Backbone:
């Protein structure tokens, strides 16, 4: 089973009747319920209001994939939890960031860039085009699908060059946006997926649910999570493949710089 946590700040659902009507169990509940209908995925939820935001060390250690939705409370996320999640991603936990999570502390920390974009909240049509139809995240999807009402995000998108661009969106107002992007950070797979404004029924859409389920399977790296092996171990190497002659002081070994 791919052990998946669906995290949501759970603010709009508790403060806006319109959002509560669309997502009576929260956006996190809607996403988790769809994932739990998938073979081989076990999804649970966590929210901002829980102790340690529902992400204590032991829970993160047992997760294969974390899905993140945030918007109104980016600044309220504990820096300790951010570092805990980042360390887990480096160690192989998959991370999927949805919609306005482009501005989450965790995403900025992993990307090392402002992650800025342009936006317009007008409920306009979004058409998502597959630009990598052979990618595992695109499995079972048509060459394009539409969401009748969504918030517009537009380029430029201030993120590092991705490994793959899986989706590009066109909006009714004419803007385009790279709406499905992948990266690798350490041993962890990272996917950003744009749709998901809280006042629209986006997470009830079958194609959106298919993207998220595919992304969970793509992002999981259970071997790395189980062994703790990362892509770039930080350790001294005493032996060499070829003969070498020691030259100069060994500062890290002899303690002259405070390291032993």
Residues:
């Amino acid at each position: 089973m791919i052990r998946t946590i669906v995290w949501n700040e759970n603010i709009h659902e508790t403060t806006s009747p319109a959002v509560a009507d669309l997502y009576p169990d929260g956006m996190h509940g809607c996403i988790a319920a769809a994932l739990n209908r998938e073979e081989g995925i076990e999804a649970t939820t966590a929210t901002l209001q829980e102790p340690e935001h529902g992400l204590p060390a032991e829970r993160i250690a047992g997760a294969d994939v974390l899905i993140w939705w945030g918007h109104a409370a980016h600044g309220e996320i504990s820096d300790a939890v951010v570092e805990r999640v980042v360390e887990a991603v480096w160690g192989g936990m998959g991370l999927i960031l949805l919609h306005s999570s482009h501005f989450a502390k965790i995403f900025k920390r992993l990307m090392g860039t402002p992650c800025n974009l342009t936006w317009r909240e007008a409920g306009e049509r979004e058409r998502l085009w597959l630009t990598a139809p052979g990618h595992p995240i695109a499995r079972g999807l048509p060459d394009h699908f539409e969401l009748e009402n969504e918030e517009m995000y537009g380029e430029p998108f201030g993120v590092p060059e991705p490994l793959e661009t899986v989706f590009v969106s066109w909006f009714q107002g004419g803007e385009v946006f790279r709406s499905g992007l992948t990266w690798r950070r350490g041993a962890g797979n990272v996917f950003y997926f744009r749709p998901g404004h809280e006042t629209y029924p986006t997470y009830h859409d079958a194609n959106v649910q298919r993207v998220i389920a595919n992304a969970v399977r793509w992002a999981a790296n259970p071997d790395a999570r189980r062994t703790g092996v990362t892509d770039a171990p930080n350790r001294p190497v005493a032996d060499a493949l070829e003969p070498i002659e020691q030259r100069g002081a060994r500062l890290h070994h002899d303690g002259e710089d405070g390291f032993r």
Observations:
- The chain has a mean pLDDT of 93.
- The domain at 2-118+177-227 is CATH 3.40.50.880 (Rossmann fold).
